[in-house]
């Protein structure tokens, strides 16, 4: 899903060019290229061990490839500081367990650290409040993060990402531990952010969700990109059978929206 035309400078493009990485002599990713533009919602599909997590870590600048490069708004990510990267790209994990009982407002305020350090100036407080309002969790601001449900925690982590100032969200199975209602509310929020020019890249094992909610899908298999295009074009039984080593007879039993 692409957003309507926006004023320039509101988004960051993320591009991977021919990324390859091996560990202990075993190829993990081989010649992986992709581009993520403002306003896109992209699902990253692939079986466990296909290289999804490694790819995310490369895109976030947490790993260095053996070959290839990652560009963030045209700049090599390897040339940027961690603070510069954090104000452009935010990582939202599948789950998060804090050590201390911070309030929701304090958790979101931590997102300002890359831009302001731990400065609690009014500007930072204002941005934190705007992020909380944007995600629709103002009623949770004074609640302890440790006391929230899984869906509420995911919303807090997204608000923290927005407080960073990042316009690109990289998410690792954001709905994996959520119930049906929580999943739908979270996906609606992500679609709203995408429509406002945010770029969203999320791993998922749910092809039905990728079909219904994501405009584009990328599939990894044994470290290769084997499909990249509109979700309703690339996600089919043949792709799922190859990605997850599932015979057609099993896919028939699973049902769902996949053609």
From TrEMBL:
<keyword id="KW-0813">Transport</keyword>
<keyword id="KW-0547">Nucleotide-binding</keyword>
<dbReference type="InterPro" id="IPR027417">
    <property type="entry name" value="P-loop_NTPase"/>
</dbReference>
<comment type="function">
    <text>Part of the ABC transporter complex HmuTUV involved in hemin import. Responsible for energy coupling to the transport system.</text>
</comment>
<dbReference type="Pfam" id="PF00005">
    <property type="entry name" value="ABC_tran"/>
</dbReference>
<keyword id="KW-1278">Translocase</keyword>
<dbReference type="GO" id="GO:0005524">
    <property type="term" value="F:ATP binding"/>
</dbReference>
<feature type="domain" description="ABC transporter">
    <location>
        <begin position="14"/>
        <end position="247"/>
    </location>
</feature>
<keyword id="KW-0067">ATP-binding</keyword>
<dbReference type="InterPro" id="IPR003439">
    <property type="entry name" value="ABC_transporter-like_ATP-bd"/>
</dbReference>
<dbReference type="InterPro" id="IPR003593">
    <property type="entry name" value="AAA+_ATPase"/>
</dbReference>
<protein>
    <submittedName>
        <fullName>ABC transporter ATP-binding protein</fullName>
    </submittedName>
</protein>
